[in-house]
Each structure stands twice: as C-alpha cells, then as structure tokens.
Write a structure and sequence with these properties.
By secondary structure, this protein is mainly alpha-helical. The protein has two domains: about 35 residues; about 60 residues, DNA polymerase, domain 1 (Orthogonal Bundle). Helix content is about 45%, strand content about 5%. The protein has four helices and two strands. A two-stranded parallel ribbon has the order 1-2. It starts with 5 loop residues before the first helix and ends with a strand.
C-alpha cells in the first residue's frame, strides 16, 4: 500500500511512538494531580486531655524526677519521707518534705495524686 523506505518507516514509527507517549503522559497527568489542602484552623484545647498524674505513694525515683523542679536528691527525700512516715494522705503533705515549698508545690500539685 505504502512504498516507504527503511529510513521513512523508522521516522514514521518514531513519530507514532512519540505521539502515543505524549498522549499517555497527558492522560496520566490528569489522574496524578497533587491536591494542596490547607487547614484554616485547628481547635485544640489542652484542657480537653486529662493530665497524667504521678501517684506519690507508689512512684519510684525515676517517676518523681519527671515532675518539674524535682531532681534526684529531692526525689530521694520524698522516698525517704514516705519510708519514715508512711503513705501521703494528700498531695499537700509533700510540703513537709525538706526542699518542697509553696512555690514548688504550686508547680507540681496538678501532676501528683495519692491514689
């Protein structure tokens, strides 16, 4: 039907392959679009999440050190107090431990329990 030479057939096949490649890229490009989603606002209230409380009647030294302002030596004093006096009756009793004053107690009072 067509009397094409070797070079002409090669060019024709190359052009058809390029055309098909271009069409397939255009079709695939429509399906692979990246959707940019922006969140305008995010309502998060820290008070919605209950804080984790440390039971000062059962906590070990590592747990006590996690409290703000409590270092290893103060944590040891808390353990020593508990060993001598017994269980804490209330978190406020921590103020009887040497080194825990009103200011430090105010920082940690919401993070401790006696349950």
């Amino acid at each position: 039907m067509f009397n094409l030479g070797k070079t002409e057939r090669f060019i024709l096949i190359f052009l058809i392959a390029a055309l098909l490649t271009g069409l397939s890229l255009k079709i695939c490009g429509k399906h692979n679009r990246i959707i940019d989603v922006k969140i305008k606002s995010f309502n998060y209230e820290p008070s919605d999440i209950a804080p984790i409380k440390i039971n000062i009647n059962e906590a070990d030294i590592e747990a006590l050190i996690r409290l703000e302002g409590i270092g290893p030596s103060l944590a040891k004093r808390i353990l020593d107090y508990r060993a001598q006096i017994g269980r804490f009756g209330s978190p406020e009793e921590l103020k009887k431990v040497k080194g825990i004053g009103e200011k430090l107690f105010e920082k940690i009072k919401d993070e401790v329990s006696v349950d």
